[in-house]
Amino acid sequence: MVATGGLFAPAEALVETTRRIEREIGRVIVGQREIVRAVLISVLAGGHVLLEGVPGLGKTLLVRTLAQVLRLEGSRVQFTPDLMPADITGTNLIVDEGGTRSFRFQAGPLFANLILADEINRATPKTQSALLEAMQERAVTIGRTRHSLPEPFMVLATQNPIEMEGTYALPEAQLDRFFFKLNVGFPGEDDLVEIATRTTTGATALPEAIADGDALTDLIAMARDVPIARAVTRYAARIVLSTHPGGETSPREVKQFVRHGASPRGVQTLVLAGKIRALMEGRFNVAFEDIRAVAHPSLRHRIILSYEGEAEGMTTDRIVDAAIAATPEAA
Amino acid sequence: MRQIGGGRALGEALIELSHGARIALAVDWMTVSIAVGLVIDCLMLLLVRTRVLPVLPAEALVLLPGGGAVVALVAAMVRPLPLPWLAREVDRRSGLRERAQTALETLDRDDDLARALRLDALTVLRRTQPLDAFRPRVPVRVTLVALVAAAIVVGMQALVAPPPTADTERLRQIALGEAERIEALADEVEADPLLASTGAAEMAAILRQTAEALRNQEMVPERAMARVAEAERSLTEMRSARAFDAAAALSRMADVFDREAVTRPVAHALDRRDYARAAHELAQLGSRAAQASGGERDAISEALRLAGAATARHDESLAQALRAAAERARLGDPSSTHSASQELSRVGAESRRQETLERAMSQLQSSRSTIGSGGMDSKAPSSSAAGASERVAGQPGSGGQSGSGREDADGEQAGAGAGTGIASNSMSRYDPAMTQANQVEVPGGDFDRPSFSEGGVQDPSAEEGTVTVDYRSVLPTYYERATRAMQDRYVPLGLKELVRQYFSSLQPPGVG
Predict the structure, then answer these.
(1) A7 to chain B: which residues are within 8 Å by CB?
(2) In chain A, how long is the greatest CA-to-CA distance?
(3) What is d(CA B171, CA B376) in angstroms, rounded to the nearest whole number?
(4) B127 to chain A: which residues are within 8 Å by CB?
(5) Quick one: which of A82, A83, A85, A65 has its CA closest to A22?
(6) Virtual CA dihedral for B330, B334, B335, B338, nearest 10 degrees?
(7) Over 60: is that where the pLDDT of B149 sits?
(8) pTM for the complete prediction?
(9) B53/B499 Cα distance (integer angstroms)
């Protein structure tokens, strides 16, 4: 980043804050830098994240650390088939106060800033819908009363790609509500050694709180103001169009293996995520490379493969790769 | 702060970089122009090869790529460069990650991020050198295309022979014409019964092969001329030294027989080179002597004896036969001249073979000359072609040609000075009627008014370094040599008279 010599302190502070948050999380979370960065981008965008990976990869630790660094209230819900909507949203309880009985709302675990919805695909669609509705509306309705969720409100849902028996896959429409979908990969040898070292000794790294909810809200607001050139916005739009089998510039893979391309939320996500990534890279503008960098987590869960695509073992990541390759920067 | 990050400063910074942009554009466009020009050159050369286009000069091939490069240079220098374009190119070429174009688009914004971006972009742009931002880079692929195209153009120009032009087409026609003439001569040779026993078939075969080669040759003058020269060498090896003696013997025999009316038919047949007729007339002479009176028989016998004496120097066998015929004719033997007649046929055939050989060589020489001159001068007329229509089958060549290629004891070209004015290279055949016409055309008046000086006086108009000699001092020598040549070689009787008249006209007044 080119220093502005303190002339634009808010902008520089924003950049510096994002870097410090990333650095502080990195003190606790071993490896997974891309995941950490993506989660942070999603948090700064005020979006929700769907993490897909096998158990034991530090997903819960990541959410807890993030809550500590951002000084947010976090909660964790383990989704099971018998979990009911009221179990997460809360319910009205009859309370007896001085001989007078009345209903009092008992808030569920959703009433927190940072929610870890663990193994979301094990809950019934009814419970999933309750969660996804809260994610979209940022409020829950109990009886006739609408209860707003605290700001900022973010859900980090996880799902296990194995042990699919007895699970309820999320509908595509509900997947679209997640800002990012992240594939949490298995750590490498060095990272495993580091994890073993850190977790088998008495010393535990404690992250420092960098910001609080208000500061985070300000960061989210400012991040949306990052300038972006029209050419870059058009580039993002063309990439999304290229994921549609009927698109003029769609590559062969898209035409052959895709049933539905990314929704307009895909463009919104690309641009917003691009803005935040630019800030984290120390720039005040969005570059083409920012769009490309956030394309996979932004679009992979918004593309629906055809039967042929699934039969051929095609993945949405490869479709995104093909769409990027088929889209020139200049129109 | 607004001034620092304002649009004006940003614009000025971009314009500073535009100089580099123009240079980079010029290099880029010039390379493309040259490549396109060379590719078009390749296509044009291809069209030239397929005769769709005429042959192009080398300058025309340089014009397209060279002119294109100049146009590209000028266009790069004068083309307006809009700021958005400049910003986009600076971003792209310098890896500024869309800073410049985004900053340019946020001039209407006054928030912290927009201003920070403009200051950031301005700082980066001011640190950037024009030639760093727009480093002139030759496009590799285009350059490769240009190099390949240039190699093809050079190869097609240098290695591949040019396509047939109007000149080569004309040359082809000339060669075909010469082939036709040579073929016609071969036909004549084969058709002549007198030549049947003299190896004429071999001569005809050489001529036919040459004609065929001229038809099939790639029309390169050098190749065609080499092929004709090779045939000339083959024919030269077929020449016989005895053939010249045969011609001389027949000439002297004709001279002798021309003196007596009774033997004149033989002389006239010899003069026409109709040797078969001459042999027949000679055979008849014996019968005529047997039936003639004593005086006429003696005249015939004497003519035969003189003919034997005249030919003894050149052909002993013929001379003996003539002498024997003279003896037997004097005794009234009707078959006295049969043996001499057979000898005359033999010598005539020998002479005819040599004449034909000379004609063939002359034709080949003429063809070679025609092809050679046709390849260099498109306007030069073909003397051979002009003369071809004048040929008369079975007629001998001109006097000028008859002695060509042989030198006498003095080393002078035989037949020199005895020419009739008919071009030696033309294939005009000897024709008595034509000879008469030529005789008439000789400017006899000039003989009375010689233009050269007399009395050894130096001609003031004479070119420096030349010597003028009194012709009276050399005339007897030339006349003696001409006379000897007419005796030793065959010269048509009419032409002998012409030569005599010529020298008579040169005699100074008062000299008999």
Answers:
(1) 1, 115-116, 119
(2) 74
(3) 9
(4) none
(5) A65
(6) 80
(7) yes
(8) 0.56
(9) 59
Question: A319 to chain B nearest CA, in Å?
Answer: 25
Instruction: Test A8 with B119 for CB contact under 8 angstroms.
Output: yes
Asked whether B17 and B125 are in contact (CB, 8 A), the reply is yes
pLDDT of residue B405: 35
Alpha-carbon distance of B492 to A23, in angstroms, equals 126
Pairwise CB contact (< 8 Å): B119 & A4: yes
Distance CA A237, CA A331 (A): 11
Residues of chain A in contact with residue B128, where contact means CB-CB under 8 angstroms, are none
By CA distance, what is B116's nearest residue in A? A8
Nearest to B281 by CA among B295, B292, B272, B270: B270
Chain A residues with beta carbon closer than 8 angstroms to that of B88: 231, 330
Contacts with A231 from chain B: Cβ below 8 Å = 88, 98, 101
Q: Do A11 and B112 touch (CB under 8 A)?
A: yes
Residue A275: closest C-alpha in chain B: B113
Cβ A228–B102 below 8 Å, yes or no? yes
Residue ranges of domains in chain A, CATH in brackets = 1-82+113-225 (3.40.50.300), 227-331 (1.10.8.80)
* Location of structure tokens 């949405």: A316
Q: Which residues of B touch A292 (CB under 8 A)?
A: none
Number of A to B CB contacts under 8 A, please give it: 69
Residue with tokens 């088939």: A81
Q: Would you say residue A285 has pLDDT above 60?
A: yes
Tell me: the pLDDT tens digits for B336-391? Answer: 888 888 888 888 888 888 888 888 888 888 888 887 776 554 444 334 333 333 33
CB contact under 8 A, A1 and B111: no
Q: How confident is the model at residue B190 (pLDDT cuts 50, 70, 90)?
A: confident
Q: A139 to chain B nearest CA, in Å? A: 32
Does the pLDDT at position A199 exceed 90?
A: no
Closest-CA residue of chain A to B124: A2
The total of other beta-carbon atoms located within 10 Å of residue B469's CB is: 10
Answer yes or no: are the C-beta atoms of A240 and A270 closer than 8 Å. Answer: yes
Cβ pair A225, A160 in contact under 8 A: no
Q: Please write the tens of the pLDDT for every residue from B430-486.
A: 344 443 443 333 333 333 444 443 344 444 554 555 566 777 778 878 888 887 777
Q: Is A327 exposed, middle or buried (0-12, 13-18, 19+ CB in 10 A)?
A: buried
CA angle B430, B435, B438 (to 5 degrees): 130
Alpha carbons A79 and A167: distance in angstroms, whole number: 10
* Upper half-sphere CA count for residue B63 (Cβ side, 13 Å): 7
Res. B402: pLDDT tops 70: no
